[in-house]
Amino acid sequence: MIIRCRCSPRTRFPVSLYGDKQVPANEAPTVQVKAISFSDEPDPVPGPRRGAASGAAGAGPDGANPDGPATPGRRRRRALVAGGVAAVVLAAAGGTAAYAYSGEVPRGTSVLGVDLGGKSRAEATDALRADLTRRAQTLDAPVSVRIGDQTAQIKPADVGLAVDVEATVAASADAKAHPVSLLFGSRSVDPVIKVDAERLDTELRKVAGKFSPEMTVPRITFDGTTPKPVYPKPGKGLDPTQSAEALRAGWLSGQPVTIPVVDVQPATSAAEVDQLVAELAKPATAKPVTVTTDKGKFTIPGTAIAKSLVLAGDKTGKIHPRVDEKKLREAIDRQLDTVETDPRDATYQVEGGKLRPVAGAGGRQVDTEALSRDLLAVLPSSNKREINGTIKSVEPKITTEELPALGIKEKVSSFTTHFTGGMSSPRSQNIRQIAKEVDGALVKPGETFSLNGHTGPRDYAQGYRDAPVILDGKLVPGVGGGTSQFTTTLFNATYYAGLEDVEHKPHSFWFSRYPPVIESTIFYPHLDFKFRNNTPHGLVIDTSVTNSSVTVSIWSTKIWDSVTTEWSPRRNITKPKLIHLTPGPSCIATNGIDGFTQDAWRIFRKDGKEVKREKFTWRYDAEPRYVCGPKPN
């Protein structure tokens, strides 16, 4: 066999190709090998070469083989030559390998077109991160996804979609997982893509709509204290793991990503629902639970347990029984009164047109978080229905020391509405009751005040009485009637103080005792009134009631020179219909009121100039003229 090694006298190895780059000879050797054979067979019998004539050119003087006979010495020399060539080849390969794997990332390695070869992990991380930063506008662009017939845009930042730089560099440095040719190697490593599967699932469900058939999530509700099971049914839906995998695979393609719609089986079976009914839901409400505290005992009745025990499946259909702490506290509010003392926030009271600080005080409350956990543990039992309750100290939200820093100095606004009937009227008594509960309420800068949240339920137990309310388009007796007049008064006081309107809803009919458009109704818990203290100062709500009026004033520090209102003319006026109702206690006669649409602009002025204006618009229905009696013949 013939072996040739072409070596320059100056440079032992002239050039090596690595990918499409030329590397200097002193870095990477190249050995040109025509054929290499290592054999343990003996040399052939001495004699002339096959096909060579005696005395021909290349023959010895006696016509014999010029190399002479295969003597033992000659065989040793040939072995040394072959061994030397093998050493050269191995040295060349070793030099190439050393070159290829210099640095932590093998040479010739690229990710997304970024050459990371020959770099340390830290250098490769910096290089890849710098390139991704350069491409940020492209990588941050919304991704188009298809879910069945629906299409949507998903923002990568919303679902944690990004290239995992550290994991990608680690994969690039792993030569075993991504082998590279020692002589002519180059390789492209796919980036490692990360995405938050749960956040992605949440975003996809916002746009996916309902699937057909939709999976029926199992749950157990209560009719009074009787459990009512809803059994699971399979359907079509999304699988968070498969959705995430599809997005990872298709993100960088530049094409819309198809999210698979899969068969979804509820995680809780019908048999497990029946087991929960028998072993938890039924015994849970069968008997009350006694709670012992260091301030005395109270009981949790079955009705309160039914209202707070949650047996509803999650989006996978798995039921995780729990007791809702908030619902439990609402359901046993009266029982807690026997062992609790509410904290009292520090505030101001207005006396003689001046502010007087009122000190706050701490309170003691049952730890309902621990109570909910311990209650759930005894609900399956029909005998041992006793638990211990922990009373904890509760500090006021606002302490006396905090008051001066709130910057409450002066009356900012005031609004009054009038009513008839005097204080003997149930409606007037409801107005006085809600005004009493709100009087002295302090709202810190940035906080949102909710009227429903402040008073809680307004029913007979809280001192409210039956009075006319609007229900299904007509006046009927209802507990708490008249609280809407207080709500309108409070709304206008905050409106003219320039405070931010968060939530309010005008009445369906207009009543002359209220200003049109800028008024508000309320109905617990569905309709609320909320405003936000969008000033740098705290504020106090001051209320007062006479036999014929209710007044609400806001005390704080003035921001605006004035806040006023301009109304548009009424339009789209409609006339009331005549409707006859069956006479009786629930029938309330009315004279009828025109319906109309109107605009109101809230105008803010400062330093003698109009700074801004806000538009409010409302459409009032025509209140029918109700007559308690049959139609005349």
Strand order of the largest sheet: 11-10-17-18
Radius of gyration, rounded? 43 Å
Oligomer: single chain
What is the approximate shape?
A: globular
* Total number of strands: 38
How many helices? The count is 15
How does the major sheet shape up? Answer: 4 strands, antiparallel
**Broad structural category:** alpha+beta
Which runs of at least 5 residues are low in confidence (pLDDT < 50)? 1-68, 85-94
> Which percent range describes the beta-strand content?
25-35%
Give the end-to-end Cα distance, rounded to a whole number of Å.
130 Å
* Helical fraction: 25-40%
User: What value does the average pLDDT take?
Assistant: 85
Protein name: VanW family protein
Keywords: Membrane, Transmembrane, Transmembrane helix
Pfam family, one: VanW
Organism: Micromonospora sonneratiae
